[in-house]
Amino acid sequence: MWLRRVLSIILIYVYLIPPRAQLQHVDQPYVVHTTSPKLCVHTRLTDEVEDWKVQYTLQLVREMGATHIVEFFPWAYAQPTPSTYDWRNFDRLFEQSHEQGLKVFARMGLVPAWAQTGIANPTLNTLPVSAYPNFAQFVAEFAERYQTQLAGVIIWNEPNISFEWGYNAVDAVAYVDLLRITYETVKRQSPHIPILLAGLAPTLEPLNSSYGLNDLIYLEQIYEAGGNSYFDGVAVHTYGFTHPPDAPADRMQLNFRRVELLHGIMERFGDGEKPVIITETGWNDDPAWVFSVKPSQRIQYTLQALHMAERWEWLDQMCLWVFRTPAPLNSYQDGFALVSPSFVGDGLYSSLQQHTQGQQTGDTPWLDPPTHGDE
Amino acid sequence: MARSTNTWRRIGLIVAGVVLILAIARLPLAPRPTPDPSQVLTNPILRVGLQADRKPFAYINEQGEMIGLEVDLMRLIGEVWGIESALIPIGADGLYDAVTSNQVDVVVAGLQPNSLYDGKSVRYTRQYFDNGYLLLSKDDSPRLEGLAGKRVAVQFGSEGHQLLQRWQRRLKPFEIAPYELESIALNAFQMGVVDWALLQPTTLSDTLNPKIARAEWQSQQVTHVWYTMVVVEQRADLLQLLNDTLHTLDQDSRLDMIVAEWLPYYAPQK
Q1: What span, in angstroms and rounded, lies between the C-alpha atoms of B218 and B239?
Q2: Do B88 and B163 belong to one domain?
Q3: Which end of chain A has the lower number of beta carbons within 10 A, N or C?
Q4: Residues within 8 A of B (CB atoms), A 98-127 only
């Protein structure tokens, strides 16, 4: 009798434990089929917990017709102590992106606490000068490990705004110093890995602002500080906000074609041959955000921007912010996502997919606004 | 015999222990006195981090002034405390860092409690607003049981749309009418093209939705999205001060008055 009870309990227990999901792997990596090889998306997968969600996200990226992704690789995640590396999180992402036939632009940042010893009120972006060589060595180890899949390594993020510079005053000369040390360290180990200048935050902040500095001025300062010897390409952040993509470039306006002004500065400093990669762009359709557009405009503007990007010979990729986040951000930022955390694609996802597969973009998936005749 | 006595003694001890725990639990705990703002804030200025691009909570108007529901709320709290509030715009990416690195005392930007941070680096106050979905109906108070056979307007691709799709799998058949925007869904509801509408309270703002007209409708809150303020983990006194003040403003309806100022067609459900 007791044996039957024990067996029943064991059976119930076994039944209640969910089976561990087994990923299906392919023998040969997929090939991305697309008519828009410049289409790329920024993913956020290093904060994803479950393996199948990483795999399914990248599958959806491939099926949309994007050839590249940009991903953030936090230093603090992979080097918990000065002498320890833990690559597991990053390994699975590179394995899965390889299977889906995707190349990766890696954005590097987020400082571990051990590199901030003695700093008062550090933020996740506070990098003391004394830790520049530690960061550089980490990037070099990273680049060597994943070199076959890397399309480029982006050194830091938006250093022209104070928040991204650890709430310190922004300083292009200091950034060039970080760039130089990192470039030299990476190239010693992996000479062929492209090093990309950080995408600068599009902003009109004037000199001496506590918030940050105009990205055009900051880029000029990088060149004046001799930074051009320490990068192979330039990452660019350019958003459309409420403007259509063909709104003219203007030093006093933030819009999509600001990328042309940044490229113009590169040309002026004799650097126009280096590739430009738009690593963040897009339009937002959250009505509560003051810089949003309607969902139909978001689709129209994004497709139009992609056509423009395809004509710009100096531009390698146009990466949309953001493909999907692991959980809702519960802010206007959710209005940038192409796919929801629960994997529901929005109208932009299907329109881009139709475009890259050479199909006519179909009817809109929503009803026409009601008219008085409908009452 | 000895074994039986021991058993009864054990049972007696357990019963006594349970009675003692229940008695302690019933004791009214003396509320901690509300801290004095001049002692909690060193300056004494309340440095408030706001994300000034979110209508109708905090945004810059055509005159270049920061206005909105959260702006009014923090000004009122400053008045209640008898101190000045410094309103500091912070980008969406830097909200948590601003408070943990002591750039501001409190962040007020529609943030919702996140177990990853709560109690580790920051603390969340009680809620000051609920931005959960509302089910709107022109007749009786809309309840899920009455959904069968109805036509429900919603914004295409929104969380509300996904919620209706989940309900469709579980409830009796009803029709979803997806529109491009919540404001269009509301318009369809007001024109009688659909029976019900599922939307967020912010759509009932004339700042966001200038075409909105006053109309009779019943609403039922079907999800909750609590907006809270964030302070750094170590500042328990400031957290208590904010919580006590929010409680007072809720009790004497001054919080409702601010909400009504910005969302005149929305009646929060208590």
Answers
A1: 36
A2: no
A3: N
A4: 121-125
Nearest one of A182, A93, A154, A149 to A277, comparing CA atoms: A154
Identify whether B24 is part of a domain. Answer: no
**Residue B67 is part of which domain span?**
37-131+225-262
* Chain B contact present for A332, CB below 8 A: yes
**A291 contacts in chain B (CB < 8 Å):** 53
Residue B195 belongs to some domain of the structure = yes
Using a CB–CB cut-off of 8 Å, the residues of B that contact A are: 51, 53-55, 57, 59-60, 90-94, 97-98, 100-103, 109-112, 156-157, 159, 162, 177-184, 187-188, 191-193, 202-203, 208, 225
The total number of structural domains in chain B stands at 2
pTM: 0.85
Instruction: Decide if A374 touches B, using CB distance below 8 A.
Output: yes
Find the closest chain A residue to B195 by CA distance.
Answer: A375
Same domain, yes or no: B114 and B244? yes
pLDDT over 70 for what percent of chain B?
91
**Of A149, A167, A246, A239, nearest to A200 (Cα)?**
A239
Tell how far CA B264 is from the center of its chain.
Answer: 17
What is the mean pLDDT of the segment spanning A50-67? 97
Domain locations along chain A:
37-360
**Residues B207 and B237 occupy one common structural domain:** no
- Phi, psi of B25, deg, nearest 5: -60, -30
ipTM field:
0.78
Query: Are B230 and B208 within one domain?
Result: no
Residues on chain B touching A125 (C-beta within 8 angstroms): 97
Cβ distance B180 to A124 less than 8 Å, yes or no, reads no
- Does residue B4 fall inside a structural domain? no
Mean pLDDT (chain A, rounded): 94
Using a CB-CB distance cutoff of 8 angstroms, which residues of chain A are in contact with residue B71?
none
Cis peptide before B44 (omega within 30 of 0): yes
Kindly list the residues from chain B whose CB atom is less than 8 angstroms away from the CB atom of residue A163.
90-91, 93-94, 97-98
In this complex, the residue of A121, A291, A294 whose CB is nearest that of residue B180 is A294
Residue with tokens 């660019």: A236
pLDDT digit string (tens) for A215-274?
999 999 999 999 999 999 999 999 999 999 999 999 999 999 999 999 999 999 999 999
Is A290 an 8 Å CB contact of chain B? yes
Q: pLDDT tens across B74-109, in order?
A: 999 999 999 999 999 998 888 998 999 899 999 999
Closest residue in A to B154 (Cα) is: A366
Specify whether B177 is located in the same domain as B112: no
The CATH number of the domain where B76 resides is what? 3.40.190.10
- In terms of CA atoms, which chain A residue is nearest residue B97? A123
- Does the structural domain A37-360 have CATH classification 3.30.70.260? no
Residues B85 and B200 in one domain: no
Residue A294 touches chain B, beta carbons under 8 Å? yes
Q: Are residues B240 and B215 in the same domain?
A: no
On whether both B49 and B110 belong to a single domain, the answer is: yes
CA distances from A304 to A35, A170, A244, A256, B87 (A): 15, 34, 9, 11, 39
Which of B53, B109, B202 shows the shortest C-beta gap to A291? B53
Beta B134-137 vs B196-199: how paired, if at all?
antiparallel
Say whether B202 and A290 touch across the interface (CB within 8 A).
no
